[in-house]
Amino acid sequence: MNCKTTIFPRVTLFCGHYGSGKTNLAVNYALFLREKGLRVSLADIDIVNPYFRSKDSEKELKEKGVGVVSLPFANSSVDLPSLPSEVYGLVQRRDIYAVLDIGGDERGALALGRFAPYIKEENNYDMFFVVNFYRPLTPDAKSALEVMGEIEAACPLRFTGIINNSNLGEITSPEDIEKTAGKAEELSRLSRLPVRYTSVNETLKNTVSAENLFYLKLQKKVF
Predict the structure, then answer these.
(1) Residue 48: its pLDDT value, please?
(2) The domain containing residue 61 runs over which residues?
(3) Is residue 180, in this structure, part of any structural domain at all?
(4) What b/e sequence results for 81-97 when a residue is b if at least 16 CB atoms lie within 10 Å of its CB, and e otherwise?
(5) Taking a C-beta distance cutoff of 8 angstroms, is the pair 180, 168 a contact?
């Protein structure tokens, strides 16, 4: 992964609208931190989407030494907003890097409010807004900014950066990614936050012209 950041905050949160790809990014980022030799755990507190969860990649994560904390009813037909006590321990302890996959709208962000006091007290976190400009509800910077505002209004934490995760799945071309750069820059200007990464499927490595590329492996859904 072509990622220039060398100092990582202890807690990293991924938020975004439904279908933005935040879960896939959270999984890849946890694996990325583990490759750096860090002790990492990934917590899935997405109470919105019961179908595509970080738990889908649990086997690969654990094989590579990444801890996984998921909802009790992940990958089932039950979708209750109950959160495991392990998540509280993960945000409170200081000896492990925590990656949190947050629900995809303001309702999902409400769950984050339960942990926000601990995160704010330590003040060693990144909260990334993941945007896919090819999704119907975030086709442009102004629409994406509205979603950012809804999420921030639902939790006491503020975003620290943007990840441009614009893609069309497995049929994404380098041009599809590059032509959204202007929208990401406009969102950065409107929100006054930096575009920290542009994500790219690892199959397109060395084909996209952009700064701070984050190469990732697409995760599979489990039904």
Answers:
(1) 60
(2) 11-216
(3) yes
(4) eebeeebeebbeeeeeb
(5) no
